[in-house]
Amino acid sequence: MITIIDYNAGNIRSVLRACAEAGAEAMTTSDPKVVVKAEKIIFPGVGAAPSAMEYLKKTGLDTAIKNAFMSSVPILGICLGAQIVLEGSEEGPQQCLGLVPGKTVRFKIDDKTLKIPHMGWNEVRVVKSHPLLDGVKKGDEFYFVHSYYPSPTDKQNIYATADYGGDFCCALGYKNLFAVQFHPEKSGRLGLQMLEKFTRWNP
Amino acid sequence: MLSKRLVICLDVRGGKLAKSIRFVDTKDIGDPVAKARQYYEEGVDELVFYDITASRENRDIMIDFVEKAASQIFIPFSVGGGIRSVEDATKLRNAGAEKVNVNTAAVLRKELITEIADAIGSQSTILSMDIRRVTPIEKIPSGYEIVVNGGITPMGIDALWWAKEGERLGAGELVVNSIDADGTNNGYELKLTRMLAEAVGIPVIASGGAGKPEHLYDVLTEGRADAALVASIVHYGEYTCHQLKEYLHGRGIKMRMSY
Known about the structure:
heterodimer; A: alpha/beta; Rossmann fold; eight-stranded mixed sheet; four-stranded mixed sheet; 32% strand; B: alpha/beta; TIM Barrel
């Protein structure tokens, strides 16, 4: 059973529906007690890091997620959930969850024809193999909508990149955490395939 | 780099799929969710559901419909037709639409664009524009005028001005629909599409007139569009999504080819 964390940050029902389509049993919760006991966690989210962190702290979900991570529960972060697992973000002065060393940074693009947010289908290039990226081939594209991206301190933690005015990290992995900047729940067959692989991932 | 997008529009009337020619003479052509699912599996990059009745009574049917669609297709889709308030937009977004399209109501009260963008984000707020060619006059120097109410009421508003204004107010994307080209199968209005695409910094979805794969190529190159919207050429089985994408890819357009 996958526990999807509902923390008032965007439409998590799309993640729930995609899990159902991928054959992954899933439920949503905003209860920290449920999160701590979860078998597997999807940590989704769209929106801004400061308000998301404020909400997580207020509800105690921040501690629950950290504890789950420390006790080796497999976690899949998506979009904002791939950003606030780092220590901080250029989006605001707040501390983030700090599960992985690094920071979330904003796109700095000189090419004025490239708009922010980076929105649409873009190629995900695997730079280091990972069970959740199995089957992702050269040229495979996923759906993105974001203005910030995760930048882990140790580049060894980068598993895939995408190019938008330069390469940026779009998939990071660290211990029992894997996190993607794109939206597997909106990326068609390839995204569903990743969710299905998550059900079988036992780090 | 981002790929160009193939977008399919499905006109929905009371939960049924319809296709209009020049905005009149509509007929039902099937179940829109089943059709959407088929296009999703064939590799369409994005879908648009247009509620062509757009009456208040129909609102709940549409929300129910969006819920059904969202459980069947796992790519982004937008919903348009009769969106008059932030509440409408938020409900559709919560039901599973990635984006919403505003059109007539935004022309009548332009603050609506900002209100919706503030509530659900610019990236989810699409300004859809129905445009007809006119003789340039002082009020409409570009020679393209905004029409509303499904393409029947001319507004005396210049389309070029409105596109820029829409971006300023917070729209994250534009649909440029040519009333003159719609349903003709003679190709997109390239001049109009290019003029607007060059005037704004947000993505432009070209709409109206696609009859052959070449037309898509033309509007994505010469027309400078980021996405090409089609309807009848796929609804009636003349071309499949896959054929259109293969064609564009073969001519060097960056498309999502693995699906």
